[in-house]
Amino acid sequence: MALVEQHIQDGIAILSLNRPETLNALSPSLFVELRQLVDAIAQDTDNIGCVILRGEGKSFSAGNDLKAIQNGEQAPSAYFQAETLEAIERLPQPVIAAVQGHCYTGSLELALACDLLIAAQSAKFADTHGKWGMSPTWGMSQRLPRRVGLLAAKEMMFSGRVIGGEEAVQMGLANQCVPDEQLQQSAIEMAKAFLQNSWFTLRADKLLVNGGLDRTLADGLRWERENSPGRGPDMEERLAAFSKK
Predict the structure, then answer these.
(1) pTM of the prediction?
(2) At residue 119, what are phi and psi to the nearest 5 degrees?
(3) Cα-based torsion angle of the residue sequence 44, 45, 49, 51 in order, rounded to the nearest 10 degrees
């Protein structure tokens, strides 16, 4: 049985964490499968325009698989998990996290590597590093402040308190909060809305926004001018279709 299942339809790749019996705990083996799929998606921009990352069962993921760690299971390299999250972040395609139930610590770091997030009403977000006497290595200290702001991020990290789906929207952690039964369809509808636009522009937008985050405003503006890929291959066709309306 695959630990991460993939379904591709209408330009959307749905990646499903598939360990519902463990609340989709993030074992090293799961990360190996996830990385293989992510690397393949990065090379398939002709057929895949958007990605949805979700979890089977009642939770997105309860976080890092502590039992696997205790049992001696190891990733292929020291920073393999963190580098897999970076690979998700670097995907040319927009990535939507669809989160229900638990999204704790390592799985919150996984969700933060996605561009957008739709939360179910059952969603529970928390950074529990402090509960276990651990410290972040998968990106929490960098991505969470950039997503929700410095004060909110520090409060979440220092307290370890649980954030619900509606509060996640209010603080800028999530884009939407929807009933659980509407979660996957809401993510698909968001992806389909994106794919109505030029896939070329979607990739360009993501490249330019993410690249600018590492720079000052002045450097970012210059970087955009120098790195914008310009006109897409579908521009003339889209203009011609518009003129016929």
Answers:
(1) 0.95
(2) -105, 140
(3) 40
Q: What are the residue boundaries of the structural domains of the chain, listed by start?
A: 4-195, 199-243
Q: What is the pLDDT of residues 38-80, one digit of tens each?
A: 999 999 999 999 999 999 999 999 998 888 877 888 889 999 9
- Residue type for 209, please? V
Distance from first CA to last CA of the chain, Å, rounded?
A: 50
The 10s digit of each residue's pLDDT in 196-232 is: 999 999 999 999 999 999 899 999 999 999 999 998 8
Q: What angle do CA 234, 239, 242 make, to 5 degrees?
A: 125
**How far apart (Å, rounded) are the C-alpha atoms in residues 113 and 242?**
35
For residue range 156-202, list pLDDT tens digits in order: 999 999 999 999 999 999 999 999 999 999 999 999 999 999 999 99
- The one-letter amino acid at 137: T
pLDDT of residue 245: 67
Q: Which residues contact 102 (CB under 8 A, 6 or more apart)?
A: 23, 59, 60, 61, 62, 63, 124
Architecture of domain 4-195 in CATH? Alpha-Beta Complex (3.90)
| Helix residue spans in the chain (DSSP H) | 28-42, 66-70, 80-90, 106-112, 129-132, 140-148, 150-159, 165-170, 183-195, 199-212, 217-227, 235-243
